[in-house]
Fold this protein.
Amino acid sequence: MDRAENRFGGDTLAAGSATLNPLYKEVKSRLTRGLAGGEWKAGEAIPSESRLAERFGVSIGTIRKAIDELVAERILLRHQGRGTFVATHTEDRTLFYFFHIVAKDGTRELPVTELLSFRKARADALEAERLALQSGAPVFRVRNLLKLSGKPVIVDEIAVPAALFTDLDRDVFGGREGTIYGLYQAQYSITVTRISERISAGRAPARIAALLGLDTGTPALAIRRVAYTYDDTPVEYRVSWVNTEHHEYLSDLWRTRGNEP
Amino acid sequence: MDRAENRFGGDTLAAGSATLNPLYKEVKSRLTRGLAGGEWKAGEAIPSESRLAERFGVSIGTIRKAIDELVAERILLRHQGRGTFVATHTEDRTLFYFFHIVAKDGTRELPVTELLSFRKARADALEAERLALQSGAPVFRVRNLLKLSGKPVIVDEIAVPAALFTDLDRDVFGGREGTIYGLYQAQYSITVTRISERISAGRAPARIAALLGLDTGTPALAIRRVAYTYDDTPVEYRVSWVNTEHHEYLSDLWRTRGNEP
DNA sequence: TTCGATTTGTTCGTATGTATT
DNA sequence: TAATACATACGAACAAATCGA
């Protein structure tokens, strides 16, 4: 079909104009903007492929190719016969992808979180850099103790921009159901789509070592994480200290086949 | 088209028989077997999509869908106008995906390897388990010192099944050009397609600490890696000790968008 | 340098299968 | 059962990159 047919009118895509991108990339970008802008919310279904094809003035194959990539990035979720849904952080499934500490015997388990402290503060240099903020910008700082099988294993220190999380307070944070990223998504319409982690070994500060039941000087894992949302805006900086006596960090790359049985 | 047309004859695919899989999965499996069996070697081009379509008796679209997945798994590489090629471990590109230690200032660099020792030995319990061998099976053990910017940062202890690497010796290993996985691929037709790493913090053994210039008791990163080939057979077990004073482990998950500019 | 053959990349359309509601 | 939605498979046309004559 002549792509010029799609040049005008409402939502349909212009092919020869600003973008030299393939059509499906343009569709993908539109869908991503719709997600970021809240047109479709977490857990909701996006319109069917045929409706999207109509709306954008492209073929279903082009729509499918765009959605394929968003599914590969775990931003969307397809269910045959039901529809295509915005991925949520409520399911165990997703937690699997954002929590990498496993017992050395291989068993996986969801941590139980205990809120240690909640404060409003000003971003230090490192937080500001990682969160792309002005130094001194207001942030919320949260400290959590994470237990596995009832024993403390991880201490998290989380910093999020106050501008993105208006009215976040200790009760909201501590009283949440589900995961922290589930809270971001449900309460603040902020969906974490990707994380980047840098891992080193060190001696945990005395207070943290005490919380983890570590002797002073015992090696522990330090994980520095930045979490990003749809448009790759950083939304959270997190430092985790891990007692690796009985647990370790699992990095199982490119297990794309993981989708399959 | 009626899939029964493809039921008989040479290489063409049987649809209604043994497999209930989609055709493209069957094609993918055939391609993977061809790669594992050496029909197409590292760096070579596989037949064109149209030829494969003819050979398997399916449409080009089906071939493309099969290849799509192999490309996503970095097993194949497409070049518009040239063909589809078997990924090699010779290029810096791939090293990017199998080497995760970066300087804390963010700069990436390829390590310079120094062979410390090479021995034939019998697999201990852990090696046997990780490599799916009988305990006591013959293995080669290699110890390497890896330098970044001229300074020692990592000590690797590698174990590989002797059965897979016949006649491997110190000279072959030390005299290689390029990466270790490049050697496996070029000399032994063993292609590492996937790795799984488990990371913990600890005190390096005295000999290793000395090599890394660490005071005894200084925390270091311990990485235990299993490398797998096409059919998910484990082919290498490796323990790396990392001095994380100036370097760290980078885990940048699901950067599938990494392919794009 | 130009041209034509080859190969992958994009887009369209259609038909049918399978799962869900 | 019927309608809907995604999944698979086919075919065709053209675009874009590559390579050799």
User: Anything to note?
Assistant: The longest helix of chain A spans residues 23-36. The longest strand of chain A covers residues 112-122.
